[in-house]
Amino acid sequence: MITFEAKINDRTVRMYSNYPLKNAVGAIFRTLTQIESEGNTDIFDSKFVLGFGWSFFYTSERKDKDGNAFYVVETNDYKKNPFKDRTDDVTLALMAQNMQVEAVGMSQVKPEVTTFRDTILVLKEAMNATDVYMNRTEPSKNGDSGWYFGLLNDPNEENHKPEDYLKLYSFELFKFRSEALRVLQLPVGTVAVFHDNDMTALVDGNDNPMKFTTREEREKLAAKAREEWEAKIEEAKAAAANETNKEDKKDE
Fold first, then answer.
1. Taking the alpha carbons of 124, 79, 98, 50 in that order, is the dihedral positive or negative?
2. Domain that holds residue 11
3. Is residue 248 part of a domain?
4. Is 172 a member of any domain?
């Protein structure tokens, strides 16, 4: 687990992630710092909630082994029940955030917010299908994302009955098509096509192609980011070892 740390109003704040998601972590830290500096909201209050894109974040006071206080940023636990369970492992929340920010940036559109607790309409048959699509229409009410998850080239599309569908919370896409999380902030009219867990096409409401990155492109970028992160760690270790050697020589 990687520990990220920042000082906000002279208090130590930490975030934990399994991956070096420094850009996403930095965005959270910057937002918390800005809110705290405005003086209208106490981000260290136990009732504080930060709505940031798809997820919500909270601060929780902890003590280190020496009894010193610090704060940990927690988020909804998507491996359990995110409506009541929290976790200090922000990996899934930040991965979803990165996916959605990247999709909005690549397609150069104005995002329309979907949170983890907004619902999507899902055709049951499509959940385990190879070729599926996502289509966003105008939400029918609060809490409805407007997204539909269906079977591509569905021969029975006009004959489905109400019992053929499910209303699921958007976070449940983690369970059967995690790549679909990527498009959740894209606007009404968007259609995304998937083959297994790879997005293969993306168009807007006028059937104009929208830019997106392929899995191979993202894997190369992730590998590069990991190499850069590991290089910085080794550099920091070498610097620390050098300082230790200097102190040892002073003591001789």
1. positive
2. 2-96
3. no
4. yes
The structure's pTM equals 0.81
10 Å Cβ neighbour count for 105? 12
Report the C-alpha gap between 247 and 252 in whole angstroms: 9
Looking at the structure, tell me whether residues 113 and 88 fall in a common domain. no
- Which tens digits make up the pLDDT trace of 172-196? 999 999 999 999 999 999 999 999 9
Rounded to whole angstroms, the Cα distance separating 151 from 129 reads 7
pLDDT per residue as tens digits for the range 101-138: 999 999 999 999 999 999 999 999 999 999 999 999 99
The span from the CA of 102 to the CA of 183, in Å, is 9
What pLDDT does residue 217 have?
65
The tally of domains found in the chain comes to 2
Judge if 125 and 197 occupy the same domain: yes
Q: Encoding tokens for residue 68?
A: 């010193």
